[in-house]
Each structure stands twice: as C-alpha cells, then as structure tokens.
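CORE FACILITY INTAKE
Project code: CF-77B
Contact: R.S. (postdoc)
Sample description: multi-component assembly, four entities in total
Requested service: structural model of the whole complex
Turnaround: standard
Below are the sequence entries exactly as provided by the requester. Do not edit them.
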Amino acid sequence: MTSADYLPILILILIAAPFAGIAILLPSVLGPKNPNRMKQEAIESGMIPFADARRRFPVQYYMVAVLFIIFDIEVIFLFPWAVSLNQLKIFGLIEMGVFLGILLIGYLYVWKKGAFEWE
Amino acid sequence: MSLPTLDFSLILPELVVLITALLVLIADLLWPRAASRGREQAPAVLALAGLILAGLLTLLAGEWSGATLQGMLVADALARYLNLVVLLAAALGLLLSWSYLPHFSTQRSEYYALYLLAVAGMLFLGKSIELITLFVSLEILSIALYVLTGFHRGQLAGGEAALKYFLLGAFSSGFLLYGAALFYAATGATRLADIAAQNAGGFYMLAGLALFLVGLGFKLAVAPFHMWAPDAYQGAPTPVTAFMSVGTKAAALVALFRVVQAAGSVPVGVWATALAFLSLLTMTLGNLAALRQSSLKRMLAYSSIAHAGYLLVGVVAGTAAGFDAVLFYLFAYAFMNIGAFAIASLLERPGFYAVQDAGIHAADGLFGRRPWLAVAMAMFMLSLAGIPPLAGFFGKLYLFAAAVESGWAWLAVAGVLNSVISAYYYLRVVVGMFMAEPSASAHLRLPLPASATLAVALTALGTLLFGLLATPWFQGISR
Amino acid sequence: MDLTTFPLLSLILWLPVLGALALFLFADARSIRVTALVVTLLDFAASLLLLPRWTPDGSMHYQEVLAWAAGLDFRYHLGVDGISLWLVLLTTLLGPIVVLFSWRNVTENVRSFFFLLLIQQAGMLGVFLSLDLILFFIFWEFTLIPMYFLIGQWGSGRRVYAATKFFLYTMAGSALMLVVILLLYFQTGSFNWLTLKEAGLDRTLQFWGFLTFALAFAIKVPMFPFHTWLPDAHVEAPTAGSVILAGVLLKMGVYGFLRFCLPLFPQATAIFLPWIAGLAIVGILYGSLTALVQKDVKSLVAYSSIAHLGFVMLGVASMNEQGLSGAVLQSVNHGLSTGALFLMVGMIYDRRHTRLLAEFGGLWRQMPVYSALFMVVVMASVGLPGLNGFVGEFTILLGAFRVNPLWAALGTLGVILAAWYLLAAVRGLLHGPLDNPANQHLADLDRREVLVLAPLVLLFFLIGLFPALFFDKITPAVELLLRDVGPVIGR
Amino acid sequence: MPLLFAALALIALVGAAGVLLSRNPVYSALSLLLNFVAFAVMYVMLSAQFLGVVQIIVYAGAIVVLFLFVVMLIGGNLPALGRGRRAYVRAAGVILAALFLLALLFGLARPLPNGLAAVGAPDGGSVQALGLALYVDHIVPFELASILLLTAMLGGIVLARRYQAPPKD
C-alpha cells in the first residue's frame, strides 16, 4: 500500500469537497436575505415549537454511546486476529475465546441490568 | 512461527481474583431475582473467599524466583510481598464494606466486582515489567477506583470526588503514556529489561522518566499532584478510601521502583534529588494541612498524603534496603491506616442521601462508651505518629535508616520533624477520646457490626505485633 | 540454677508488664489493687537480688544479649552498672509506694490506672537497663505514652493541656536523637553502647551528636530554658503521677547525660561543659526564686525539683569523681525526698482538696504525726547533715569547688534559698494559728499513709548516716567513666 | 512528502485550536473530528495503515459521537465558560504553556537517539504485521485489555443507572 495507491481516495476527496462546498456556499451568497421571526424558528412540521429544541437527552443515549464504543473496540481487535489466524491456529482461537468470553459476560450483565431497554 | 507456551502458574493469584470477580457477576445474573436471605451477602462472601485463596496461593506458592511471563509480568519476591500487602488491604477493606454497603446501595455485586477488578489491577501493576502492561493494569485499577469513589450515588460529594479523581487520573495517565512513548523513542523497546540493557542516556530518557514520575506522582498523591486526594478520599465510601489509600500506593510505588531501576542510565542523583524534594514537599504539606481539618476522614486523607511522603524517602534512598523498608512500612501502614479508617467508618452516620462525616470531635468520650475501641484507635493514632513500640515506629526507623545510609540524612531529619508535627493532630483525636466528654456530634453505629469489629481487631493486633516480630522477613526482598 | 546465667534484668524489666496483663484477670477493684501491689513488691525484691553478688568494679553486670532484628542489627542488650543500679532500685521502690498510696483515692477506671502505672514502671526500667541505642530510644519514647494518659485522664485542672505539652515537648526534643543514632550506626557499624564508647568518632559527628542528645536530655532533666513543661505536668498530674514524674522520669535525663552524652562524645563535652554548668546554676537560682513566690504547695515542690536537679547537673558538669558520684547519689536522694514531699502534699490534698498555702496553718496541733514526718522530709530535702540530702549536695559542691570555686559559691546560695522556701512552706502549713475551721477536724495520718512514708524516711537516715554503702558501688563506675573521658577533657 | 506533512500538521493544529476557541460545544466537537482525521492521514503516511483506519473508526466514528451525545445530554446551549475568577490563573496558564513549548523545542533540537526503529518500513503497520505482534508477542496486554473493557462497561452501568435508595430493611 504505497502512497500511490491512495491517489484514488485523494481524487475522490478533491471532487466531493468542492461539490458540497458549492452547494452550501452558493445559496447563502446569492439568495435574498430578509430574515423575520417566523422564518428563524425551528421547523416542527408546521406546529409552533413550544420549547427550545435542545432539551436534555435521557441517559439511555449516553449508555448506548458508551457501550457502542466498548463493543466497537472489541470488534477492532478482531480484524488483525482474523487476518493472521492462519499462522495463529488453535492458539489464536483460545486467546480470542478468552477475550470474547470475558466481554460476553460483560455483555450478558449489561443486558440483564436493562441498559438496552428503552422505557 | 513458534507459538509461545505460557506458564500461568506465575500469575495464579491474579487469575483467582479475576475469576472471582467474574463469578460475582455471573452469580448476580443467575441468582433468581426473588431475594433469598443469603442473597445480599453472597457477593461479599464470594469476594472474601477469592481474596483469601489468592493470599494463600501467594504465601504458599514456593519461592518466586523472578521468572517472567513473556517478559511482561514477573513473579519475584518484590511482587510477592506486594501481592500480600494489596490482598491484606483488600480483605480488610472488604470486611469494612460488608456492613457499610447495605446502608446506601443496592448494587452490591457491581461493588464487589469492581472492588476485585481494582485488586487485580494492582496485582498486575506490581508484576508488570513492560510499559504497555504497566499502563493497562494501571488503567484497570484506576477506572475501577474512579467508579468506586462515586459509588454512593445519593451523596453529592461522592459524585464530585469521583469526577475530580477521574479528571486528574486521566490527565496523569496521559503523562504516563507520553513518558512511555519517550522511553520507547530513546531505547526502541518497551520491556523494562531491554530499556535497562540499552542504557541509552540523553534527553529523551530523562524527559521520559520525568513524565513517568509525574504520572505515578498523581497516582501516589505526591505533593504538587495531590489536589484530588483529600476530596476523593473524603467523598468515597470509607471502606473504599481505606483500601484505596493503601493499595494504590503500594502498587504505584513498586511500579515506580521498577521503572527507576530500569532507567539506570539516568544518573541516580538526578531523579533522587527530584524525588527527595517531592517527598519533603509531600510530608510537610500533608502534615500542615491535616493540622486544621475539622472532619476526621479528611484529616486521615491528609495524613495519608503525608505518609506517601515518608514512603518516598525509601525510594529516594535508591538501595535495595531502602525499598525493603518501603515494603515493611507499607504493611505497617496498611494495618494502622485501615484500622483508623475502620473506626472512622464506625463513627460516621451513613444514610441514603448524605453520609455525615465523623468530625474531629466525633470520637470524644469514646473511652467511656467503648473502651476497647478507644484503645485500638489510640494505638492507630500513636502508631501513625511513629511512637515505639508500635509498627509505625519500626517502619519509620527502617526508612530513615536507609535514607541516612545512602547519604540523605537531611531527608531523615525532615521526616522525623514531620512526625512530631503529625503527633499533634493525632494526639488531638486521642485527647478527645480519653480526656473529653462525649460531644453532641459524637455518634457510634450501634450495635457494632461484627465484620467491622473483626477488621479493627485484626488491624490493632497487626499494629501492635507487626513492628516487633516481622523484621526478619523483610531482608533482601528487592534486588 | 545459679544466679549468674538467670536473666535477672529481663525478669525485673518484664515482671511489671506481666503483672499489668494479669490485671485483666480480675474484675473487682480490690483484687486489682492487691495484684498491682504484689507485682510491684515482687519487682522490688527481684531488683534487690542485684545487690548481694555485686562486684564493685564499675563494669556492666548481669549483661544479657539477644539478637533481634536482622537488617539493622540492633539487639536486645541489657546491662546495669554503678550509675544505673540505684536508679533501678529507686524505680522499683517507688512502685509499691505509689500503688499503696493510690489505694483509696483512685476510684474510677481502676484497672487502666494500675495498668498504666505498671507499664510506666517497665518503660522506665527499660530506659535504665538497655545498652543498645535503639532499644534505649524505644523505651525512652515509650515512657511518654503511659504518663500522658495518667496525667490526661486522672489529672486535675488543665490536665489535657499539661499532658499534651509534656508529650509533644519531649517527643520534639528526642526526635533528632533518632537520626544521630542512625548516623552513629552507619559510621561505627553497631548500636551497642560498649562498642560505640570505644569507637573514636570524628569531631563534627561528636559535636552534633552531643547537641541533639543534650537537647533531648536537657528537656527531660529539665534544664533551665527547657523546663516550662514541668510545673504544668507536675501540678496537674495525679499524686501517683507526680511522684513517678519527679522521682524517676526526671532522672532519665540525668542518666542520659551520664550514660550517652559524656562517654560517647568526649571532645564535644569539653566544649559544652561550661554551658551545662552555667545552665545548671541558672536552673538552681531560677528554681529556688520562683519556688519562693508560689502560693500552691505542689508547684512549690515542682519548682524545687528544678532547683535540686540544677544541683545534680552542676555535679555532672564538674566532671570529677566527687561531682559525678555526688550527682548520681543526689538524683536518687531527690527521688526519695521530692517523692515523699509530693506524697505528703497529696495526703492533705485528699483531705482538703486544695493546695493553696493560705488555706492551711496550724496543722501541727491538729495532725502531729503528719507534721513531724513533714518536718523530717523537709529537712532531708533542705540538706540537713545526717540526712540523705546533705550527703549528695555536699559531694556535688565539693566536686564543683575543685573545678571552679564560683560554681560552688553559687551552689551554696542555692542551698540557702532551698532552706528558705521549704521552711516557708512549713510555716505556711504547720505553724501559725489553727484558725481555718476546715482544718480543725482533719484526721491525722492513718496506718496505710504512715506505711507509705516509712521506707522513704528510713532511707533518708540510711543514706545520710552510711553513704559508703551506696558510694562504694557508684564510685568505681564513675572512675571508669572518667578514665575514658577525663584525659580528653583534661581533668 | 514533507509538504503534505506540513499541510496535515497545520490542519491538525487548526482543528485543535478550534476545539478550544469555539463558543458552541458542537463546533468544538466537529473541529476535534477534523483533528482526528488529519492524524489518521498522518498515520497512513507513516505506513501504519491499520492504525489510521482504527483512528477513523474508533475516534472519529465513536468517540466524537460520544462527545456529541454528552453535549446533548447536558443540553446544547451550554453557557460559555464564565470568566475565570482569578486572573492570575489565566496568566499562569500562558506562562506554563510557553515553558512547555520551550522544553519541547529544546528537546527536538537535540539529535534524535539512535535507538529509533526504522520508521516507514513499507508494511510495518499493516494489519498482518500488527496481528502477529499483538497476538503472539503481546498476549498479556491484549487479555488485560479485555478486563479493562469489562471494568469500563461495569463502571458505565453503575454510574448511569437511576439511583434507588435501598429498601429500609
């Protein structure tokens, strides 16, 4: 994977970025600007918004985010393991078995303690 | 591609502790929700059994000859003694939490699981001789303790304490990692043995060691980095404080000693002077601040900081005898400090929403109500002040002897004078107990919980006899 | 079992500790007191066993060595010689006397009172007997704890302040001593007093060593600038505590000078001797003058102790045979006479619960036995020839005169002042009209109280008339000390 | 190559500055994202491809999202941090930062120690090489990592649950 192989990604970025940029900048530059109170309000599908949109989130969202990170890292460990399993053979299997086993207990515990339920 | 064969007997005690932690979690899952009578104390019993088994394994498992597990974890005499002091502190702390926990929390199995994970973290930290393992085990122990500090959800101070401890702990881990990176940059190896072999001098090694000292300094609550300690110690539930104040110091000190030995190329005079200055600062700040505390627990927190200063004197000496003295002091410190916190926990009024800390005068007139409790507390206080023939005196004697031997006489003088300063606020508690009438704020959790009384009895016995009897076993441990 | 190998010193040292533990076997106060009395009497008998086979050659007798710690090789090493013999006997003698005295007036927490008393006795014996510097230091700091609780719990008035001041003052003083002991160890390789005595230490270590040791012992003696803890501690302590404080604890300071400061740091001694003499004389005069103006009898006796111990330190500072042996004997005499004084003050305090001189007067008619005994004790401490005080003071003044006549002159001034304030006390208590109604029907001494004072008065006459009995054991030890230290100081 | 590195370094610095200076916490989270992406590209340039991808997935993907959740949890319109009560704290901060910068420059000016492993070996950081290193040489830290994740999970659970006082037994 020498740096030349990254040329396509570079080209992709060079095309996508300006396209998005133009789409955002052009209307704000060319379009008429006479804001009034009604237009400034958040769109509540026609309803009149009675409170600020940014209310406090219930804690479940935070739980989901934390658990997502933990299991995300767990998955990340699987990538190199999968790639080099042919050399690791049974030893690698036991090793990853222990790793996943411990996290499985954690997962069962989290599940039993109702962190996933949405009341 | 030779797959390594791992000799798991080297880390048997740690595995036992880990498996017990997992068992506590599984037991909580499988046990039917319908709470049978034994349901509450099951996790505690399981945890205690695990600790005792691990302790026995450490004691009886023959001679720990320094074999390493892939050059990552070593099982030498130093690690063995660390295991013992951590398991001792953990068992005593657990006895305290047995009766302390039901007052404010229903999440018992989580508490004991995290408690055991913290213990496992300390045991691994004591054995790790490789930078990454050292960092990961330090993180295990830290995260577990952050959560345990904030375990009393009802009490606001607990939350504040946990946040402070977390922020500064994470900050210090950053320093530690940066130090480890610089070590790797200077020597190209992460195993401490290879780093020592490289003997590479230069700026990177020095900067790496400095950052490492800062990182571990935070964990040890050494002077300039001790800001979190009083709040964290006061906010945390008392059994956690008792265990934390001994366990973290022991493990962090062993890690510090191993790293300092590995960074052989940095001239001893350099880091020793830095540590000596830190030690002096810690002792003096800890003692002076403790003088004017109104809460007994906060006073013990500052005294615990001061004792970190005394412990550093042994590391500053830099000799093997120096660190033997540190290990000896750690055991003596475990007995007297956990004993003092045990009685502080008995004097508290733990409630669901607010734990009313035991004030300095909470112990007034204790001799009238429970003479033996007062005698035990007097022993802990006098031993912490370093009065013979208690364990604290012998601990300080060996520490200062090591310091004088390696040319740090002025540090020994500072240590001795600090002991005199500390005698004042320790005596203030003794005065209250024996010579004053019970004050309005005096409160004693009656009937005295059996487990806490057992903990007090064990620590009192240890404080009295450890100093006199245990010296021969503490020769030539750390090479 | 011949007596040479029998660990007599360990028996004397640990008997009170065993007795203290035995107290827990009994529940009622009476049997606790009886046990305490029996244990202290046994201890006194055991210490008497030292005398019959004593070879007066000044060397260390009955030595016992037991290897204790492996790392720092400090050992459990006991020994007694001419200097410490009488102090040990004084301690074991005062033990039963104090127990007998506190028979009636200690009512609550009786078991812990006698427990602390016995532990205190063991600690003091440990100080006099140990020849290993670390063992000495352990006992030296340990004696603080029981006395701290004795003053703090059973004292009167500002007892908490007095106890804490006593504890911290002494602990601060002796804190540095530990570091110097370690320095000595790492220079000579041993904590043993005998080897350290021979090891020629370099001058700077001797200088600092002497300073720190002298600071710790001067506080304990107490010498002039460091005496402020004494009046509080003595006045607020219970009678038993005051007797032990005055009788034995102060002598630990003098013993420290004789045992450690002089032989270990001879060159530094030569420098500091005039300073000690000066402070001693200031102590004598200061003690006497302040005693004159005291209204409370107990503080009068307390300040008189400062004066008397000024005498003893003058003897030590004179550094010749008479001076030193006089100092050793005088410290024993002071223990006896001031102990007796405190006992008698305690007796009237138990009756009238006040110690102000103005409250008394004309006790002679009301309490003839008490007054007669009080007169004898006052004469002993003033130094009437024929009683023990005279023998001690005379030899000290003799020694001081040989060194510097001015010292002796100021010393005799002290004797005169002593006569003045003690006779003023006699006048306040005994003479004058029996006008105060409260005094008119005070009970005279009962059998127990006379029994308490009898041994002391007997010893006044014994020492006063046959000093040779005591000097022939002290002088050889003093000569041995002078043989090592003398040439260095050029005396 | 050095030009590309300089550009990336600049973007990373801009991102980091954005985190500190922007008023609205959401903007700071997004500039943090920019910082992480710049570092990811740097890792790839140093031929630590796996690390670059992990940086994108874990940091940019998960942790920035967590930041946003936390910001939302506390409520988006977080008032700008109040002015520091003690003025000297701000000054001390600047001085210390300057000192730290000096120390860094002093450090970098010195010759690099010779012990540095050959950087940029073509497949040094590829997935296969990492796999073997991780699962053969560094088994212990790997298994400890699982315990660390378990502790973190437990910690999250304990702190996030609503607090019910224990029944008055």
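Facility notes:
- The longest helix of chain D spans residues 49-74.
- The two ends of chain D are 70 Å apart (CA to CA).
Invoice: internal transfer
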